[in-house]
Write a structure and sequence with these properties.
8 helices, globular, 12 strands, 5-stranded antiparallel sheet, alpha+beta, binds the ligand Nc1nc2c(c(=O)[nH]1)N[C@H]1C(S)=C(S)[C@@H](COP(=O)(O)O)O[C@H]1N2, binds molybdenum atom
Length: 248
């Protein structure tokens, strides 16, 4: 029912070697300049121009190897919109250092929210902790203990979600996103195909196997969901480093 990333793009076993690609292109450039000494000036001018263009296009977007790999893996990821690229991220990151990351909830809700990690931890009545079973594209399985808040209860009790809402989109800082219907978010009895007694809600977790996420590596919020039915490949539906939750 839910599509995750396809196995072709799943890099867990075959990480893309960005450095190697860079090495090759650097070597190509050197070969060209050696063979065409007369044209050297022209070529280096071209390269300078190219460098400038790239900087202009990519200036405000943070790039690091991890997010590039993640982006390639994410079939659900959507190309960054112009809006995102143009937004003033340098101001945003200054804010993040001062106040910490905020989980945004926006769209068809009565109360749009910007929640700090501490404010989530204070929502004691909707905290859920449990061992979630995961299955991913290659058949890899695991049990992982997560602690977080019940997403449906957060939307219902704190954000006061509109009765007209039909979907919930979870958006990560690297552009990865997953869209769920309201019914999927409401569902409180996701399963673990290996444990007939277990029942899980969808949660926004900040702690995994007893350790909190490192806020320096991005927003410390992860969407976690169990299986809908035996064989359900649920791991790609998990969304790390959530930036916002949009209700439509
Ligand atoms: N933000 C973000 N979340 C993501 C992804 C991603 O690329 N970016 N990949 C998904 C996929 S395809 C899988 S299999 C799992 C991997 O979880 P892990 O990083 O804990 O191994 O995260 C999912 N969540
Ligand atoms: Mo994946």
């Amino acid at each position: 029912m839910l599509s995750g990333c396809n196995s072709k793009n799943d890099n867990e076993e075959t990480p893309v070697d960005i450095e190697q690609e860079e090495e090759i292109s650097q070597k190509d450039i050197e070969d060209i300049t050696e063979e065409n000494i007369d044209e050297e000036a022209d070529i280096s001018q071209d390269l300078e121009d190219k460098g400038e263009e790239e900087q202009i296009e990519e200036g405000p977007v943070e790039h690091n190897e991890e997010s590039e790999n993640k982006n390639e893996e994410a079939s659900q990821s959507v190309e960054k919109s112009n809006e995102e690229v143009e937004s003033n991220e340098s101001n945003e990151s200054e804010q993040v250092e001062e106040e910490g990351h905020k989980l945004k909830i926006e769209g068809k809700v009565e109360n749009e929210l910007k929640l700090s990690l501490d404010s989530l931890k204070d929502m004691e009545s909707i905290i859920f902790q449990g061992d979630f079973y995961s299955l991913n594209n290659f058949g890899t399985t695991a049990y992982t203990n997560f602690k977080g808040v019940n997403l449906w209860k957060l939307l219902e009790q704190n954000a006061n979600i509109s009765s007209e809402a039909t979907k919930v989109i979870i958006v990560a800082t690297d552009g990865y996103k997953m869209e769920f219907t309201i019914e999927q978010v409401k569902k409180q009895d996701y399963i673990d195909e290996t444990n007939p007694d277990a029942k899980f809600p969808m949660i926004i977790a900040w702690e995994e196997n007893g350790e909190e996420y490192d806020s320096e590596e991005g927003p410390p919020f992860k969407l976690v969901v169990g299986q809908t039915e035996p064989g359900d490949i649920n791991k790609p539906q998990w969304v790390s480093n959530i930036d916002k939750i949009t209700v439509e």
